[in-house]
Amino acid sequence: MDAKAKVRIATTSLAGCFGCHMSFLDIDERLFDLVRLVDFDRSPLTDIKTVGDCDVGLIEGGLCNAENVHVLREFRAHCRILVALGACAINGGLPAQRNHLPLAGVLQEVYQTSPGMAGGMIPNDPELPLPLDKVHPLHEVVHVDYFIPGCPPSADAIWQVLTDLIAGREPVLAQRLIHFD
């Protein structure tokens, strides 16, 4: 296949644990097959820090702060197809467990009640991204084309969606590939 005809794929991570990227890497030896079919932009397989125009963008993590929102919007602008990986991207995941608490109370508990390295002060540096009042899933801010559920999704589920997209097919996940644990 001609290099210009290859599908271009990028990945990024927002507020989460990077477990979805680990599942992506768990494709194992199939990564060699994937490399023959695609070109990678920003991903754990490259050292590219910014994203160029891509055919498929895989994104994990929810939206906890203003920087997450900025990265998501920029990533979406460069990806023809956006695939949300895992529970954090789809519904906020574990970070969203703070959503039933007021942000000020969470910050006070973490920085002023519990012992820590912040010296009892809530960090207020302009270099730090502003936290959002709630953790949001990606589809509340941008259009998401496909969702791969799981925490994390299995390597087989990611492989199935990628190979379907590369082949120009509508991705279909068999029930055995979908899990929510």
Number of helices: 6
Return Rg in Å.
18 Å
Please give the oligomerization state of what you see.
Answer: single chain
- Counted beta strands: 7
Number of domains: 1
Shape: elongated
Element-by-element helix/strand order? EHHEEEHEHHEEH
**Mean pLDDT reading:** 90
CATH topology: Rossmann fold
**Coarse structural class:** alpha/beta
Uncertain regions spanning at least 5 consecutive residues:
none
Any guess at the CATH architecture?
3-Layer(aba) Sandwich
Strand content: 15-25%
The largest sheet, given as strand count, sense and whether it forms a barrel, is: 5 strands, parallel
* Spatial sequence of strands, sheet with the most strands: 2-1-3-5-7
Q: Report the CATH superfamily.
A: NADH:ubiquinone oxidoreductase-like, 20kDa subunit
Question: What keyword list fits this structure?
Answer:
181 residues; alpha/beta; Rossmann fold; five-stranded parallel sheet; two-stranded antiparallel sheet; 7 strands
